[in-house]
Amino acid sequence: MKIQLHNSKSVDPGSDIIYLIKNKKTDKKAGLSKEQTAYVQKALEGDCAHAELNLYTHFVYLADQKDEKDTSLSLEAARSEGNKAFSFFKSKKVHTLQIADAGADAAWVNAFLEGFLLSAYSFDRYLGKKDKDGKEKALKLQYNGSADLQSLKKLAEAVHFTRDLVNEPYNHLGVKELVKEAKAMCAGYNIKFEAFNKKKIESLKMGGILGVNQASIHEPAFLIMEYKPAKAKNKKPLVLVGKGVVYDTGGASLKPSSGMETMKCDMAGAAAVIGTLRAVAAAGLPVHVIGITPLTDNAISANSMVPGDVITMYSGKTVEVLNTDAEGRLILADALHYAKKFNPELVIDLATLTGAAVRAIGDIAIAAMEVNAGKYKTQLEDAGSRTFERLVWFPMWKEYGDMIKSDIADIKNLGGPEAGQITAAKFLEHFTDYPWIHLDIAGPAFLGRNSGYRGKGATGNGVRLLFDFIKSL
Ligand code: BES
Ligand code: ZN
Ligand code: ZN
């Protein structure tokens, strides 16, 4: 649903309105009667943090700030309240709505509005017209308060853009279409855009990307997007790398068919990088950021790599490919090696890389690993708490690296049956020589269940995290 913002100096108590209150204190400006106030007080008892009054001509909705034991949980509760309020007025088919600060703290209000705006998403372009009706009508939002709603809206739009890219089926968004989307985004936000085609990738001898792409009838691509504001605070760039497998069949090590339909999400890392660049540029953050995304499908054909093949990577290292379904690390390795040429301050990669990450921590957090990231480790972790895109750190001990030693090549692309998210990261480490953070987003990037303001299917995971991190630098 499109949202049109209108700032208002005053509230109209006679039409649909949400008041953002704190500790059940109903503001005078809500103009509630004694009975109404008593009803609201009762409704807000216990765990419930919102109350609705049906005044026949309109609804008065109160969302109540209830502080949790830590701020991260309080902010998440606020986002969740924003989602509930959005759903309520959507179900009432309200198309003009007011929101007014009425005692809640600024940070809580901000998070409430974020949750509200993030909820205004549906992936409905392939639904019949009947199902779409009503969703296409914009919501006019009048806000009376001190939060920067315009900035929040830009961030939510970048998340929605990312979700669209990931939700789009493979037969509608392959490499060619993704390149087109990224290029158009960059043109709109003054981001330098460069795309290597197959010929260029061949001339650079990017053996990881070419190996994975070998079975495909579609050419791979390699995107470099640079956002360099004149007032950039960092001397050396922050480089973001995103896994862009537009569809992962597993290749010759074919995936089982159950669950394969979700593998259109295997470019969620690339989409998060593209979406983050959009958010950062839209906000004009003073940080030099470069995004790199290797793009290909992992197809199945007579031309596939087969288990046992040895390929030579862009860095010159040789890899024994023992499972063609461990393709993400092969294309990322070439991108991570390429990132060296920018002399980066820090490289962060995002990838739907392993089922092991999902088995370890489920879909509620990112499996994170780092090498020499120094202070950026805690800074990113803090951004994770603030945005509730939380990180769980895994160790990068040498023993895990021993698990990917090969008898016939420098390394192999498959570890043992355990700690797969770590052995995958140890593989990638071979292609880095800078401060580096690896984010395995296989769990939170794409959900099989509805999850409040995050929605179902693609979540855009990583965009708010990185935006907050970059803002905090
Ligand atoms: N794209 C998958 C990982 C994945 C799993 C993403 C679940 C999203 C949800 C990746 O390419 C893959 O297939 N990894 C294998 C690696 C294994 C063969 C070493 C896996 O995790 O099973
Ligand atoms: Zn795979
Ligand atoms: Zn994959």
Task: Describe this entry's structure for a reader.
Helices cover 36% and strands 21% of the residues. The strands form 4 sheets. Strands 7, 8, 9, 10, 11, 14, 15, 16 and 18 form a 9-stranded mixed beta sheet that branches. Strands 1-6-5-2-4-3 form a 6-stranded mixed beta sheet, with helices on both faces. The chain has a 3-stranded mixed beta sheet with strand order 12-13-17, with helices on one face. A hairpin with a 5-residue loop joins β12 and β13. It folds into 2 domains: 3-147, Leucine Aminopeptidase, subunit E, domain 1 (3-Layer(aba) Sandwich); 154-472, Zn peptidases (Aminopeptidase), CATH 3.40.630. With 473 residues, it is an alpha/beta fold. α10 (328-339) runs parallel beside α14. The site of ligand BES has 16 residues, from α11.
Helix content: 25-40%
CATH class placement of the largest domain: Alpha Beta
Tell me the name of the CATH homologous superfamily of the largest domain. Zn peptidases
Task: Determine the strand fraction and express it as a percent band.
Answer: 15-25%
Q: Under CATH, the topology of the largest domain is which?
A: Aminopeptidase
What is the C-alpha radius of gyration, as a whole number of Å? 24 Å
- The domain tally reads 2
Biggest β-sheet strands, sense, barrel: 9 strands, mixed
- The 3D shape can be described as elongated
Question: Mean of residue pLDDT?
Answer: 96
Compose a concise summary of this entry.
The protein is α/β, with parallel strands linked by helices and 473 residues long. Helices cover 36% and strands 21% of the residues.
